[in-house]
């Protein structure tokens, strides 16, 4: 059982390495919101998140990025007893031979009673770096 933002960050890194959309979605509280380059996307529930996360993992495969995405480090800034901003530092090694790169995303940790998870993320860095290398990523 996850207990606190540090454990959630580590567990999320393991879920990312698994390549399982369902494992990724298991780290969110709902509704979950993603802010990316001025756009807003939301998962109202776990079922929607499972499907959407798996679609994204599959798109990474089709594009040639693959699943070798590693959590390199994280920093937690406690905001209140039940919330924190988590800076996750990632590294990817694409399967198609494109040189790897690193980026940082922000995730918001939230505890609600016995439930805990990320309630939103800001992924501008991830997607802007991805699109520099894979400009057609979202059309695949």
Name its key features.
about 140 residues; Nuclear Transport Factor 2, Chain: A; six-stranded mixed beta sheet; globular; alpha+beta; about 40% strand
What does this structure look like?
- This protein has 140 residues and is an alpha+beta fold.
- It has a single domain, classed as Roll (Nuclear Transport Factor 2, Chain: A), CATH 3.10.450.
- Helix content is 34%, strand content 40%.
- It has 4 helices and 6 strands; from the N terminus they run H-H-E-E-H-E-E-E-E-H.
- Strand 3 and strand 4 form a beta hairpin.
- The model has no long low-confidence stretch (mean pLDDT 95).
At CATH's second level, what is the architecture?
Roll
What is the H/E string? HHEEHEEEEH
Q: How would you describe the shape?
A: globular
Number of helices: 4
Question: What is the radius of gyration computed over CA atoms, rounded to a whole number of angstroms?
Answer: 14 Å
Give me the secondary-structure topology.
Elements: H1 5-18, H2 21-25, E1 28-36, E2 39-43, H3 46-63, E3 69-80, E4 83-92, E5 101-112, E6 115-122, H4 124-133
Parallel strand pairs: 1-6
Antiparallel strand pairs: 1-2, 3-4, 4-5, 5-6
Short description:
With 140 residues, the protein is an alpha+beta fold. It has helices at 5-18, 21-25, 46-63, 124-133; strands at residues 28-36, 39-43, 69-80, 83-92, 101-112, 115-122.
């Amino acid at each position: 059982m996850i207990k606190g933002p540090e454990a959630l960050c580590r567990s999320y890194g393991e879920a990312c390495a698994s390549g399982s959309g369902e494992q990724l979605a298991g780290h969110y509280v709902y509704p979950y919101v993603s802010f990316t380059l001025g756009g807003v996307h939301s998962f109202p529930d776990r079922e929607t998140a499972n499907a959407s996360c798996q679609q994204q993992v599959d798109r990474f495969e089709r594009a040639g990025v693959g699943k070798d995405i590693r959590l390199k480090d994280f920093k937690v800034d406690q905001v209140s007893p039940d919330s924190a901003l988590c800076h996750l530092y990632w590294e990817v090694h694409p399967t198609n031979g494109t040189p790897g790169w690193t980026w940082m995303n922000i995730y918001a940790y939230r505890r609600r009673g016995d439930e805990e998870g990320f309630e939103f993320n800001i992924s501008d860095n991830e997607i802007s770096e991805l699109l520099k290398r894979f400009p057609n990523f979202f059309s695949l």
